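User: Hi! I have a protein structure encoded as tokens and I'd like to know what sequence might fold into it. I'm fairly new to this, so please keep things simple.
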């Protein structure tokens, strides 16, 4: 079992920045690929970014490329999502997730999920 707790969400103006953190506990964090997903009101959960166990591989959905950066610190059992140049359309609940298999864009690949942190971007 892996327990995930997100933090760092909040209200920010368009163009601003936030850094989300996801702290993991339980089994060895470095065994898991990590992902960030988001869900806006009335919409399905969507992929945002993923990072492999050793940080060699990262991938982003097109709308956030060049603005968001995923990283992890295996010594601190934490994965981060640095979000810059935020837009109102980035408003959503952001979830981190852990996958023992692949660093995937598909939510079904992730067995463990946090409860989410709200990000609201005002125009």
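Assistant: Happy to help. Inverse folding works backwards from shape to sequence: for each of the 123 positions I chose a residue that suits the local structure. Here it is:
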């Amino acid at each position: 079992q892996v327990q995930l707790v997100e933090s760092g969400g909040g209200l920010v103006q368009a163009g601003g920045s936030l850094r989300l953190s996801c702290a993991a506990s339980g089994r060895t964090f470095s065994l898991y690929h990590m992902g960030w997903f988001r869900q806006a009101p009335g919409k399905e959960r969507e992929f945002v970014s993923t990072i492999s166990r050793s940080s060699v591989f990262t991938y982003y959905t097109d709308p956030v490329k060049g603005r968001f950066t995923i990283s992890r610190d295996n010594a601190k059992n934490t994965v981060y999502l640095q979000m810059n140049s935020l837009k109102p359309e980035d408003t959503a609940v952001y979830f981190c997730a852990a996958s023992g298999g692949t660093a995937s864009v598909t939510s079904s690949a992730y067995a463990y999920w946090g409860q989410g942190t709200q990000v609201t971007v005002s125009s």
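A useful reference point when you look it over: DSSP finds no helices and eleven strands in the chain. Feel free to ask if any position seems puzzling.
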